[in-house]
Design the sequence.
């Protein structure tokens, strides 16, 4: 009976544990609609603690862009844009929600560099051959001397160039 007198209806049912639980979302991360490559928890940030830290996720996983994703249909949704100043998502997320994100990986810097080098090197070699003539090792080569007629080589170059610039279906 003494225990019942000490209890009060205004007293909290649970004692506070010292620090409140941080809000989070469970993220299933896909790369170009394949995966999930990783499943992790991401804390919600921002003034109301309801925004996803998009920049941090992109930096950790090496992504250029994040999209909402529906795994059942393997379809990308809208791009998840972030606030330019803080890096948080523009849309709020509910605490404890499970979300699927599709990421577009960052491009390697070697591809643009190799395209630039090839774009400078090929015209330089063509100009050197035009000015100095065809060198003897190339003249004795079977590829240049007649194994392939020039019109076949020109056709191959045209087909290769058109295949590279043709737009692909999504």
Sequence:
């Amino acid at each position: 009976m003494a225990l019942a007198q000490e209890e009060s209806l205004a007293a909290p049912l649970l004692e506070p544990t010292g620090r409140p639980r941080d809000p989070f979302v469970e993220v299933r991360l896909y790369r170009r609609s394949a995966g999930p490559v990783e499943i992790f928890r991401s804390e919600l940030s921002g003034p109301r603690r309801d925004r996803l830290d998009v920049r941090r996720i992109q930096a950790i996983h090496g992504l250029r862009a994040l999209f909402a994703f529906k795994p059942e249909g393997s379809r990308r949704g809208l791009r998840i844009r972030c606030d330019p100043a803080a890096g948080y998502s523009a849309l709020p997320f509910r605490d404890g929600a499970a979300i699927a994100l599709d990421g577009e990986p960052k491009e390697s810097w070697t591809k643009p560099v190799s395209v630039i080098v090839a774009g400078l090197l090929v015209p330089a070699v063509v100009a050197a051959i035009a000015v100095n003539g065809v060198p003897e090792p190339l003249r004795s080569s079977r590829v240049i001397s007649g194994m392939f007629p020039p019109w076949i080589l020109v056709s191959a170059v045209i087909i290769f160039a058109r295949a590279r610039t043709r737009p692909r279906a999504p």
The two ends are 73 Å apart (CA to CA). Strands lie at 24-31, 34-45, 51-53, 63-70, 75-79, 88-92, 98-105. The mean pLDDT is 77.
